[in-house]
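dude i think i finally got it to work??
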Amino acid sequence: MEAYQFRPDVFTAVVEAIALIRNSKRDVVTFFRGAGLEHPRLAEYERQIRTDRASLRKIEMAHTLLKVVNEMSGNHGLKVRREVLKGIVDFNNFDSIYQDKRLAAKGAVAKARELIDEKDAFTRMQQERDAERSQRLARQNAELEREKQRASKREDIKSRLYKLFTMQDEYERGKTFEVLLNDWCNFEEILVRESFRITGNRNNRTVEQVDGVIEVKGQIYVVEAKWWKNLLGPKDVAQHVMGVLTRGDGRGLFIANPGFTEAAIVEVGLALTHRIIVLGTTEELYKVMATNHTLTQWIVDKANAAVGERNPFKPYRGISEPD
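look at this
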């Protein structure tokens, strides 16, 4: 805390006002006691008033005692300073002042009030700036905390995705992949209309089969995902293509592990004349996470390639996310 709380001009004005509105030296002591000051200097002044009154001057007493008040720290010091200023600002009993001092007292009090009001205005502005700064820091800290939490959630999704490639139980892997895709969409605030359902290898147990529907950048995508041992052929993608074609203006997103045969890619490419359908692999999802890109970015880039290049399966290179 700073040693001096009053500006020099305020300090001088308050000293002069106290000396003028207090008729006697004892009144100066009483003024500071009334403001809450407790200090040995007060007792010393009282002793001098009794024994050597002529050696004291009110303005010097006010200066010394206000200096003591100004150097006080903590809440008590703040309270005493406020009471001192209040005693000046609220003073209006000028009739009690000796007549020859009355005009000077009015001028001194007016000057002190003006400077105190100015100081209070400055203090309010400073407090407003401090409050604004505190709010800004709070927003920044909150944003940092949100980013920290997002980074943690994304790291969890990444870890779970990577773990899928080591899982041997096809059924458990399919169910885990289904939950992961839902969580990933929710993380990126992609609207999920229906739950994803994943199919396992056609030669083994089959996981529940239901399409998912998501909304990305205002476009509706019918989603299907399969985690098989072999590349998917034309017959394996045909049902998805027909499902998309019967869904109004919906687009298609087919995610497969390990991928698609050339014949399957050609089959989907032919359907692009009627509807946008994109093909992706779990390996690409791995790359999306590894390069800190987003699922949204991946889907949009895939769709752009399908529209602009008539290519439903262009390898993902992680270009910048469109506005």
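The domain at 165-309 is CATH 3.40.1350.10 (Trna Endonuclease; Chain: A, domain 1).
im so relieved honestly
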